[in-house]
Amino acid sequence: MYIHIYIRTATMVNALCLWLALSVCVTHAFNLEPRIPVIKRGLKGSYFGYSVAEHQEIKPQTPKPTSWMLVGAPLGQNQQPGTNRSGALWQCPLTTYTEDCTQVITDGRLKGDGLLFRPYEYELYDSNIESEDLVPPGPDEIKDNQWLGVTVRSQGMGGKVMVCAHRHIVKTLDSRWGQGQCYILTQDLKYNDLKKPCSGKPTNKAHEQFGYCQAGTSGFLTVDDRVLIGTPGPHTWRGTVYLFTVSDEFLTRDNTVYSAPMQDLSPVNKYSYLGMSVAVGNFFGKGLAYAAGAPRSNGTGQVVLFTRYDYKPDMEVTLVLDGEQFASSYGYEITSADVNGDKLTDLIVAAPFYFNKVEGGAVYVYTALDVCRITKDDERCLPVKLVGREESRFGFALTNLGDLNKDGYEDVAIGAPYEGKGTVYIYLGSKNGIIKTPSQVIHAEDLPSPLKTFGYSLSGGIDMDHNGYSDLLIGAYEDDAIALLRSKKIIDISTYVRYEKKDGTYQDKMEPIDPNKVGCPVDPDSNYTCFSFEACCKTESLVKEESNLKLNYYIEAETYAGAKKFSRVWFATDGSSRHHYINRTVTLDTTKLTHCQREVVYLKENTRDIQSPIKFRLNYSLIQEEPVMPPQGAALPDIKNYPILNQQEAARVFEAVFQKDCGNDDICESDLQVKAKLNLSASSVKPDFYELLLGEREEIVVEVNVANIGESAYEAQLFIVHSQSLSYIASKSNDSVICNLYNATVVSCSIGNPFQKNKTADIQVRFDPKGLEDNESQLGFTIFANSTSREVKDKRPAVLQATVLKRAELSIKGSAKTQWAFYGGPVVGESAIKHLNEVGPKVSHIYEVFNEGPWKVSTLEVRISWPYEVANDKAHGKWLLYMEELPTIQALGDGECTLPPGHIVNPLKLQDSDNFDDVDNMLQPSTSPPILYNHTNHVRTTRDTEKVVNTRTIVDKDGHRHRVVAMNCKAGTAKCFDITCYIYNLQRKQEAVITVKARLWNSTLVEDYPKVDMVKIGSNAKIVIPPNVIIQQENLKDDHAIAETIAYPDLLDQQEAEPVPVWVIIVAVVAGLLLFILLTLVLRKLGFFKRRRPDPTLSGNLEKHNRDDNPENESLFKH
Fold first, then answer.
1. Are 482 and 69 in contact (CB under 8 A)?
2. Residue 476 and residue 509 in one domain
3. Based on the structure, what is the number of domains in the chain?
4. What string of DSSP letters covers 284-320?
5. Residues 737 and 731 sit within 8 Å (Cβ to Cβ)
6. Which keywords does UniProt give here (predicted)?
7. Does residue 22 lie in a domain region?
8. Contact (Cβ atoms closer than 8 angstroms) between residue 877 and residue 974
9. Region 648-653: what's the mean pLDDT?
10. What pLDDT score was predicted for residue 1093?
């Protein structure tokens, strides 16, 4: 039976605090020295450094073991003939040369009888064998690209070494299987054994069995002479692990091959890659247990722990640890170390693909697996979580460093190869487990020559240079290089601060500072409050020191952690400068290893914070020459010349406190009570709300009463959080309370320092509401008080809420520029019209929008329905009011009008004209409509077949009948589109005027309405408040308006007269006949018809004529 444990980490320490803590140390804070590394380089492109291992060979003739850096180069060229980039293992000495590594012979050896060297056929061989004595691979294997060196491990000083090729291929007549293999070497790197876990196992079903084992992807040599080999490929990449003995005690050793349960008994599913990483340790306190990572198991990744029982091949699953995040590859790398010193091995698990917004990669440290084995709910099962920077692959490599700083706890190194060019983090163990803050962060750039992917592989725990401290070997495969960072010796240091009393003795606690008193015993004449202390250090080297030590002594007040930008104090110095830090040099010798230095500190004037302690950080560091990277061939620099102080003791934080009216415990427990109200009337709609009618209230006043019924409150402040639309004006109070604008939404008031017990303060804070946005329907104020004293109990802030009433009475009126227009003349087709003046007379509709108030309107819309065509049943009818330009808005604010899609101004692109005939017939005002007469002989053309608006007859007040045609949008007698006009910032008592200019299409009226007395053409407009503008109106009746133009037929171009009735003709004829008869009778009576006839001859006729015509002459002749 096994238990699943899910990661539930407590809240991590803030990343900022982490880096601030790092700033306590100098660049090379702890004892791994990156400035003089041992650098080795391999062939370019060989992946030299893909895996590394520290190793020491014990030679009888030398007093100290010989240290070797073992390096895997999986794409290197092996010395075995007939191979191509099959990989190689290299051994490198500790020298200043960079290319003096030699390849370890692993493949192609011959026995003494000339046969190919095989496992279980071991005989002694000549260690000086040359490459020409090696033979090519046999016909049953392929070693090209086998990746020999993918895994390199050492058992430690005098122990065995393993090197694996997880892509080694076994070849048969019809198939090739990538099963992998591992060489086991003796402590002097001679062949010892060859482990092929999948050799001879069934491959009939290829990857579903053991066709692609990839044995050797990971490995570990245990202290009891066994080798654990990770094999992630069997059974469709479920994976497994194999445990073999490598003991030299052939007769007594246990030759059982142990493995994890497989197939249906496997603790993981297919494609889990169990065996990608392995580790061994006494995790449960009952002997060695075996851990294997499965980074793709369960989506998140898992780590499975196994327990082995003698002679039972199947190991038992004891515990399963589950990853925290999907695809984080939890279990990609694992290692073990006792970080808390409890003699039980702790498990460290990496999830290098873990991520969030600012983090990349995570490492989990389990220190109580024995508890987790019993119950998963115990809080001790929760791991400590360490995280790296984004995209850094933090956790790609892990290693146990051993006890790096000699404090009794093992330490850990974590690689982040993609943070910059590469970074390695050093974490120290402690009694309470891993310390979350790294003791040292080593960047590739800290080396004399940066190495790319620095930290991809790690190996530690062995004192390679014999100075008493373990060192760290780091691989950087992309640069085909490795670097050995040696540990510096640690000089122990302890620091303390003491305070001189009046009697000359010393005490560990400083007397509280009285901020109201100037001077101090050391400087009684000072005009500033001051105090003094002595900073002391005592050093005692772990390795006996014979020379003098020069230390840099540095004290910084308050700003060291980054929490404060300015300090409240300065140090006394010989000069006139006032610095909040002091820097001195201290010399210690072997006769006197203790040093104390007195410092006098002064409090700055007008310091407000007289309640929180003044914190100091004391730090000592060694003064020494900078190490210099030696040239190749020179002696390796002696690391003993560059010791370092134990930084866990070299830095100390202490503090000075103020006198406070806070009782015997010196802890001020205040009790601030806040009451608040607004100078507004209560809402009639919402309970507990106030009501603000904008435009009638010039300002809002928040009235606050603050009382302290507890102990003195230091740096007491009142905060009023308000809407960003409100503007702070001023404040007044019954005491010396000072209020200031803290930011755009907070007003802060200093109410006392200290704000003493039983004291009250009344404060009135004024705000201007004119900047409120129209979409704000309510206001909120949050009022609270706090101080640097401790509150007796947490209190909820006082919250005031007000409903914002924004009332603006809007109205709109419509009119035409003049009321009447005339039409007449011939009918002209649309295609024949080229100029605007040929369309017809000008028409202007005017809409006046007025804001009665009391509040402004930031945005409003006026939608005008414009009758551009006569209503008809066709897509495009006859023009009515032809728009010649975009409507305009006249207002103190801004405004604009837009047409709907598909409609434009002057769609026929008619040209403007300055013709005198195009005089605006509406410029002359008229007081009465014209009198209509229908007398013309105008000849009508045939009426179009389009729909024509019906005529209706109306009777005026004088009883006259008129035929009228009305065309507008509401009645559906005209086709319309909506003009949308936006008016911005219409203030109280202001108006905006919208003017729409158009042409009356003359031909439409002449053709369709020649016999009517008038044509009424109207547009409609309405006011629309946008949804995001909250404005109240009581009267909505005046939000609509009509503008109307009346068109009359032209008086000079009327239609033909009506025909004369028949009876009039008859009467006229009769009257004419009667007049003729009467005239005849009168002439007859006068003798008109009795005159003489003339002679036939001219003379006679003339004579007769003369007589008849001149009777007077006749009488004259007689006489």
1. yes
2. no
3. 4
4. SSSS-EEEEEETTTTTT-EEEEEE--TT-SBPEEEEE
5. yes
6. Cell adhesion, Glycoprotein, Integrin, Membrane, Receptor, Repeat, Signal, Transmembrane, Transmembrane helix
7. no
8. no
9. 82
10. 58
Kindly write down the DSSP assignment for every residue of 684-734, as one continuous string: SSSTT-EEEEBTTBS-EEEEEEEEE-SS-BTTEEEEEE--TTSEEEEEEES
Q: What angle do CA 737, 738, 740 make, to 5 degrees?
A: 145
Query: Mind giving me the DSSP string for 1051-1102?
Result: TTS-BPPPPPPHHHHHHHHHHHHHHHHHHHHHHHHTTTT-PPPPPSSHHHHH
- Of residues 684 and 478, which shows the higher confidence score? 478
What's the chain's average pLDDT? 85
- Secondary structure (H, E, C), 142-211: ECCCCCEEEEEEECCECCCEEEEECCCEEECCCCEEECCEEEEECCCCCEEEEECCCCCCCCCCHHHCCC
Specify whether 739 is located in the same domain as 881: no
Residues 815 and 801 in one domain: no
Contact between 779 and 753 (Cβ < 8 Å): no
Q: Do 699 and 755 fall into the same domain? A: yes
pLDDT tens for 303-325 read 999 999 999 999 999 999 999 99
At which of 780, 805, 830 does a domain end?
Answer: 805
Between CA 616 and CA 592 the distance in angstroms is: 26
Q: Which residues constitute the domain of residue 630?
A: 490-656
Cα dihedral across residues 968, 973, 974, 980: positive or negative = positive
Contacts of 1101 (CB under 8 A, 6+ apart): 1094, 1095
Tell me which range, 222-226, 828-832, 942-946, is most confidently predicted by mean pLDDT. Answer: 222-226
Angle formed at CA 850 by CA 845 and CA 854, multiple of 5 degrees: 170
Q: 979 near 867, Cβ under 8 Å?
A: no
For range 1007-1021, the mean pLDDT: 89
The pLDDT confidence band at residue 936, using thresholds 50, 70 and 90, is very low
Between 128 and 409, the higher pLDDT residue: 409
Q: 3-state class of 328 per DSSP?
A: coil
Reply yes or no on whether the pLDDT at 967 is more than 80.
Answer: yes
**Peptide bond just before 512 cis, omega within 30 deg:** no
The Cα 782–Cα 1080 span in angstroms is 120
The per-residue pLDDT for range 412-455, each reduced to its tens digit, is 999 999 999 999 999 999 999 999 999 999 999 999 999 999 99
Mean pLDDT of 887-909: 91
Q: What confidence category does residue 971 fall into, taking pLDDT thresholds of 50, 70 and 90?
A: confident
User: Residue type at 714?
Assistant: Y
pLDDT at 724 over 50: yes
Asked, for residue 289, whether it belongs to a domain, the answer is: yes
CATH number at residue 714: 2.60.40.1510
Q: Are residues 560 and 583 in the same domain?
A: yes
Report pLDDT digits (tens) over 64-74: 999 999 999 99
- Could you tell me whether strands 490-500 and 530-541 are parallel, antiparallel, or unpaired per DSSP bridges? antiparallel
Residue 767's DSSP bridge partners are 700, 728
1084 or 814: which leads in pLDDT: 814
Could you tell me the maximum CA-CA distance found in the chain, to the nearest angstrom?
A: 210
Alpha carbon separation from 651 to 388, 429, 508 (Å, rounded): 25, 18, 17
Residues 477 and 494 in one domain: no
Tell me if 819 is assigned to some domain: yes
Domain termination residue (choose one: 656, 687, 714): 656
Peptide bond into 261 cis (omega under 30): no
Q: Give the domain CATH number at 853.
A: 2.60.40.1530
- Work out whether strand 141-142 and strand 148-154 pair parallel, antiparallel, or are unpaired: unpaired
- How many DSSP H helices and E strands does the chain contain? 8, 68
Tokens of 1047: 């068109």
* Residues 718 and 755 placed together within one structural domain of the fold: yes
Coil, helix or strand for 478?
helix
Over residues 976-1001, the pLDDT tens digits come to 999 999 999 898 889 999 999 999 99
Task: Give the span between the Cα atoms of 222 and 244, in whole angstroms.
Answer: 10
